[in-house]
Each structure stands twice: as C-alpha cells, then as structure tokens.
Design a protein that fits this description.
The complex is a heterodimer of chains A (164) and B (448).
Chain A: H1 3-14, H2 17-41, H3 55-61, H4 64-72, E1 81-83, E2 93-95, H5 97-103, H6 107-115, H7 124-133, H8 154-161
Antiparallel strand pairs in A: 1-2
Helix pairs in contact in A: 3-4, 3-5, 5-6, 5-7, 7-8
Chain B: H1 2-6, H2 16-22, H3 27-34, H4 43-56, H5 60-82, H6 88-103, H7 105-112, H8 119-135, H9 140-156, H10 162-172, H11 180-200, E1 213-215, E2 218-220, H12 222-229, H13 234-250, H14 259-266, H15 271-299, H16 305-322, H17 334-352, H18 362-395, H19 397-403, H20 412-425
The chains are: A mainly alpha (164), B mainly alpha (448).
Amino acid sequence: MSPSESEGDLNELTRSGLARRITVPPVVALLLVFLYIVAEALGYRGLARPEGDTAAEAAAFGSAARTLQLIAAGENPNQPLHVRAGTLDGSEHRLRPLEAAVLARHAELVRLLVRTGAARFDTTRAVCFARARLPEVLPDLGRSHSGPAEPIDMEAAFSMCGTD
Amino acid sequence: MGTFLLAIPVQLSDSFTEFISVDGRSIWQVVGAEFFNGTYFRPLRRGLIKGVYDLSGGHYYAAFRGFQALQVLVLLLLVVRMLRVRSAAALLSVPLGLAIVVGMHTFAGAVVEGLPVNHFLTILVCCAAAVNIAQAARTPWTDVAAVVLLLCAMLTIESGLLLWAIFVAARAVGYRGVSRRGLVVLTVCVGLYFAGRFVVIGGAPPGLNERSAGFGFSVLNPDELERRFGHNPVPFYAYNVMSAISCVLFAEPRGGVWLFVRELLRGRPEPWQFVNVLTSTLTTLLIGRFAILRFGKWRAREFDEADRFVLIFLVVLPVNALFAGGYEKDVIMSPAGLFYGAAAHFVFRERLEGLRTLSIAPALALLVAIGWSVRFIGMHENLRARALSVREEWAYYDDWVREQPRPLALTAEEQAIKQHLYDDAIVRAPRVPQLSLGAIDRWFDFTQ
C-alpha cells in the first residue's frame, strides 16, 4: 500500500463512527496522562493530594515519609511548626509533628517520631492531646494508659489542652 | 508510564533483602545457589538482579527503576511490532490494544512491584519477543534466538516455560520463523528442564503451606489451606486453574477471591468493580463471538492475522493457568493478559478493515473503549499511590525489621546499602504527589 493510499484510508476511516468510538477514548486517556505529566513538571498541583509543607502538617496527614523528609531537610521537630487551616480542623495551628500526629490519631507515626528523637520537648500538651484523642500511645510517651475509651473531638481537645 | 515508574523508589520488601543476598558474591555463586533452592527453580532470577546490581555502580535507584522503565518500553515496542501495523485500520486499533495491554489488571503486578527486577515483566518481554521471532523470516539464527530466549525465560521463573507453548502455537497457525527442527530442540529443552528439576535436583512443587491463597470469598492462610485441602489438594488446584482463566476473561475472581460477587451480595460494589468486570466481559464476548464465527475457517486451517492471535491467546490462556495451580495471583496470568489485549486488538481491527466477520454495535464499541481507557488511567494513578506506599514502607523500616521471621543483623556494608536505599526513598525522593480526583477515584482499581 502506497503512503497516499494509506493516508486516504486513514482519512476515510477516521470519519467512520465506529473507528472514532474505538480510537478516541484511549487516545484521550493517553493525552490526559501526558498533559498531567507536563502540567505537574511545570508545577501544577491542582489534582495532588495534600502532603504537608511542614513536618507538622505532614504528620497531621499521616505521611511518615514526608515528615521524615522535612526533618532531614532541617526542620526542627521539637519546635512548633505551622499547620494550615483545613488540615486538622478549620483553624490554623502551631504544633510539633508529634502533637499533630497524636491529634490526627496516627499511632504508628507517633511511635516513629518518638524513636527518631522528635519528643525532646516538654510533652505535657502532647500527653494531654493523647489522653483526649489517642490514649493507646500514652505508654510510648511515658505515661500510663488512662484516657477515655472514645476519642473526643478536635475542638474539645484544643480547649482541654490549650492551642498554641 | 516510565515517568510514573521512575517516581517509585526501590522498595523495601522483596528488594532490600535481594540486594543483601547478591552483595559480595560472584554472579556464578548467586546463580549456582539458586539451582538448589527447594521448591523454586529460578537460577537466572537472582542472576539478573545481580547483573543490574553490579552495573548500577551504587546508583541503585537509577539502575533498578530505570531498568523497569526500559523493560516496559521494550515490551510496548515489541507488542506494537508483533501487531504488524500496516494499514489505517491497524493503526487506529493500536491505542485500544495498548490500553488493554496496559490497563489489564494482570499487568499491574508487573509494573507496580519492583522486586527489584520484576521477573513477570521480564517474561512478558520474552513472550512478545517470542512472537516477533516466530513472525520473522526463518534463518538458522531465528532458531538459535528461540532456544536462547526459552532457556533464559524458563530459568528465570517457571512461567517462562510458556514460551514453548507460544512457539508451538505460532508454528501451528502459520508463523514460520522457527523451523520444525527448532521446535524439536525447544521441546527437548523443556523435557530437560523437568528432568533436571524434578529428577536430577530432586525439587518438589510448592506445597499448600507455602503461602496464603484466595478461595471463594476470602483468603485462607496456610494452616486453613492445609486443614481443608491437605488430604486432597486436587480440588484446590482445579479451583485455582479455573479462577485464573476466569480472572483473565472476566476480571473476576481476583487473586482467587470473588470480590465483585461478594460485594454485590453485600449490596456495596464499587464503581471500579463494575468497570473492570463489565469491560472484560464485553471484550471476552467479542473475542468469543469472533472465535465461533471463524471456527469453520480454523478447521480448514485458513488463518489470517486476527485468527492467529486469537488462537495463540486461546492456547496461552489454559497453559498459563496451569502455573497458577498452586495459588492464584493475578500477575501470574500476565502473559495471557498480554495475548488477550492483542487478540482484542485484532478483533476490532478486522471490523475496521471492513471484513465484517463480526458486527460490533457502535455503542458497545464505545463502552468497551471507554472502560479500557479508564483502566489505563487507573493504572497510572495506581503507580502514584505505589510511590507513596513504598516511601512509607521505608519510613517504617524499624517496624519492618521487627516483623521479619528471622533477626536481621546487617554488616557494615549492608547497613550502608540500607542507608543508601533509605535516603533514596526518604531524603532524595522526588516530590511526586499522589493524585486525588475526588469521587472519580472510586472508578479506579487501587487493589492491584
């Protein structure tokens, strides 16, 4: 088949309804994936799941890897860090990663942070948060397990233990 | 897809320990040790890992992730080449064919897992290469290439034996790249494999107590399997073979578990389950109808290109399912999934070429094409989710060590390897976010 013949066939076929129905969806899918890669490379994050801009935010989202990455990049996990509104509740907060992980009820991450030296501060408020929200980690924070059976809500936890 | 693959760090489970086992040993020691590895006979599997490991020069992430991306690229090139795209209709059918190959649930395990060299992916490359050899003009070199390919594949992982079935089926449907004498040599190789593995080395097939396996609506652990089938495992093996065939044709059961039926009975099936089952079932019905309509021609040994691929698929499917006899895992059926995609491509292509063997309602064609396109996109979203889960796995390295059946005491050199991989996954990992498409996420299969 000569190039002009095959081009003619292609033109004729693309006008057929069946060919369009078979071809267009996968081509569109491929283009969508390609466009997303390009957009992401250019900095687009519109479809990205939030992952945390500070170690405390990352801990609130339960992302251990991102938390450790930000700590390795120089963030001090024993200092309060910014947590934007909408991460834990409707308000902005200043929390340590450990406190954020407790409030968001990520027990494994709490233990990981304790192991990696992110509990070298006055943990009174973290312990209070744990009593309110995640009593199972109290032994990891050096306290006995004596919290309520059911976690209380975030707002009540902040009013019980203090905000910033 | 390569971009998405490169976003995944080298994984901890099934990879780090592989690095430890090949570090400081020669390739001959690595390969030699695998000849006597009990129930599994995969001497080249670790050999390939060792090869990439040595070539990496310490750049493990670039070498292993790059190798997987390269394998996918080679696979797709070989697939397109074997489809012999020479007409407008063929060209227009390629996107759907590739969407099926990549979007197929059996393909997921070949790309989502690193292992650190994914040998299921290696076998897929070998399968596509086998068809290319079979289609080539016959020379003595095509016979040699076929034998070398079979030897490499079957010594890498058991599924590699499928290449023999592919060469035989390809010859039977009219591809002449491999001579009759070549087929005899291939058959002798397979015979020697079984004699070597089960008579000379004295290996045994995997027992019921090796791992958990899906059965009915749940997964049974080794103790439960032993209790239920220990006295007579044949029904369990038969169940697995039938499940494996059904898994390719209807996307159900998955890993031996009838997930869609279970959720349907509970009244809470997920949208992605409908997408998978409906798309696969409709595609299977089209292939099945094509086979029925062409059966008369096949009996008269008249084969066009579409017939050849549908027939090769029909041969590969049951033979492939035999490898899932011990336990059904979707990725074991990835070779059958590959030929399923190729067969579907040809069914649509024939229709577009105006051969009218099979009439396809436009609405049905659109439904199938949209379904596979959703699955194609879902595979990419899955890879993003995997990137995150591998990073999380490394973050909890200490917990992973505690869960190992044997204590893991690392030498200084092994500790350095671990630290390098850890830093690749945590400190130096590229910032690739997981996607969040809101309610649309429910249309994508994240169980793969």
